[in-house]
Amino acid sequence: MGRRAAPAGRRSARRKHRAGPRFGLPAMVLLTVVLGAGAAMADRDGTPRDGAAAPVVERTTAGASPRPTTAEPTRPAAPDPTPPARPRTTTPAPVRSSPPKRTAAKSTGVPRSGAGTFTTARSSGAPTGDGGTLRRYRVQVEDGIEISAQEAAAEIQRILAHPRGWAAHGRGRFQLVSENADFVIRIATPDTADALCLRQGLRTHGELNCETSEGVVVNLRRWMLGSPTFAGKPEEYRHLIINHEVGHEIGIRSHMGCPGPGRLAPAMMQQIKGLHGCRSNAFPYDEDGSYITGPIVS
Length: 298
Prior knowledge:
By secondary structure, the chain is an alpha/beta fold. It contains 6 helices and 8 strands; from the N terminus they run αββαββαββαββαα. The longest helix is centred in the N-terminal third of the chain and has 37 residues, at 8-44. The N and C termini lie far apart (114 Å).
């Protein structure tokens, strides 16, 4: 029995299906050429494509301007009539010239660091004060800083015997000794003072004094220069250094704030950090023998 002829509509569909691949290959070739040309133009104009690394700004040392660093663009085989776009650049901000800052150590002759070893003052004296616990102290000065340990000990002895000090008001008795001391008062360069204070977890930033389990650490810069917030000579500021740190030594652990505008700042106030309306003051007691106090701040 012979094959029946397929309906006309079905034969037409089969022809269309067979004819499809005849025109698909040229079209795919044409699409590949167009995409390749587009990719070549993207490389030529210096603009990074998806996945390409952005320009890296190279970090330079102080005083030099940052300089953009980019990879060299890939050149296509055939020339492109379209002029390439300018590559992106980074314009560095203008650098303002200013005179270099000089540290206090350089401008004043106070050394920043020292030997880290100390000389003990070989001197002693009678106890000062008539009440409270007797505390023996010795004085040490870092080697190489051109301060006499003997002279420093004599000055500290006078400070602790001052009529407006702790001993004169029954808060303790103090005696200078060269050995068998209860605590030590050290005068050290800023770097050495920082290291000694840091052992107790205290950060002094090359500027501050501190009180440790061994005694008092005096920053040489403060001893020699005083404080920018203190209205007085360095010799008077030394009273504040010793009175404040020995105040911690006799058991006053907290710091105080300013009691009011125009009033004397307490000796237990960290006056170098700002007076907050108070007047600078180096002594625990005023001239009438009244204890100078303020609100507890820490």
